[in-house]
Design brief:
Blueprint: H1 5-17, H2 24-27, H3 31-43, E1 47-48, E2 51-55, E3 60-65, E4 70-71, H4 73-81, H5 95-98
Antiparallel strand pairs: 1-4, 2-3
Length: about 100
């Protein structure tokens, strides 16, 4: 699936803000994409306690979890800077179509 990464990050952060735990199955992503997005969110400092793991030959994606994740000030700023998306983002029911390019 082609996806807009910033929109995907927005969705995940918005769900965290709303007290929901994002799951890979909600977004129709493969494991590699799911781990890559989790790594981006953690590395950019948008949320803390985001777990992402790679292992083995080729550094393959193993898992990503948001169970203990919390938004940071930087994550809140990202949501505020992209607040125009709030008008078009309808939640998880439509997220797969919304994040497509």
């Amino acid at each position: 699936m082609l996806m807009n990464r910033k929109k995907l990050i927005y969705c995940i952060l918005k769900n965290l803000q709303d007290g929901q735990v994002p799951k890979k199955s909600d977004y129709d992503l493969d494991l590699e994409q799911w781990v890559e997005i989790a790594e981006l969110i953690g590395e950019e400092g948008y949320a803390k306690n985001v777990l992402a793991s790679r292992a083995g030959i080729g550094n393959k994606a193993v898992f990503a979890m948001y169970t203990s994740a919390k938004l940071t000030i930087k994550g809140i700023d990202f949501l505020e800077q992209n607040s125009a998306w709030t008008k078009t983002y309808k939640g998880l029911k439509e997220v797969r179509d919304w994040v497509k390019l």
